[in-house]
Amino acid sequence: MSEKYKAGDTEGIYFVTISVIQWADVFTRRDYCEIICNSLAYCQKEKNLTLYAWCIMTNHLHLICSSPVLPNIMRDFKKYTSKELYKAIKQNPQESRKGWLLWLINAAGEQSSKHEEYKFWQPGYHPILLHDNQTMEQKLAYLHHNPVKAGFVEEPEQWYYSSARDYAGEKGRLEVVLLE
């Protein structure tokens, strides 16, 4: 992996992107999004993750976050959510795409270098150090406008699975530290 995409500054604030394998649109169901939110809340409470902004899209999520142990948190977060999402898809009687999603996740696991039973997330988490206010503002705007650009909502704060509500002065789904 390139040095460009490693979280080396333990005090830095990072823009992070985590993507579903094959960009599969998994997060179209509320219960799957809740698994992500609950896991992020756990990481905030128990693993020293500071969350400044976040947004769950249909096939990826963006975070602006910091932690002295960010690589470990991302590893654990991906491992845990992978198991929980796989189980949720498998056990969901309303999941019309169950066969296809399980096939995709299982095939990705078989093709991985570790030959796992399944693989939910693409490798890495693409951390970008936000080294100045301009970069921070640009990534924050990008993150919050993602659902608008995708045509899901007209205003960023209308997207429930995002911190845009917090930045609009409303109460959001997760606790965030607002960037000034």
UniProtKB/TrEMBL annotation:
Domain annotation Transposase IS200-like: ranges: 9-146
GO biological process entries: DNA transposition
SUPFAM superfamilies associated with the record: Transposase IS200-like
GO molecular function term, any single one: sequence-specific DNA binding
Gene3D superfamilies in UniProt: Transposase IS200-like
Protein origin, superkingdom: Bacteria
NCBIfam families named among the record's database cross-references: REP_Tyr_transpos (NF047646)
Protein name (database record): Transposase
Organism: Pontibacter oryzae
Lineage summary: Bacteria, Pseudomonadati, Bacteroidota, Cytophagia, Cytophagales
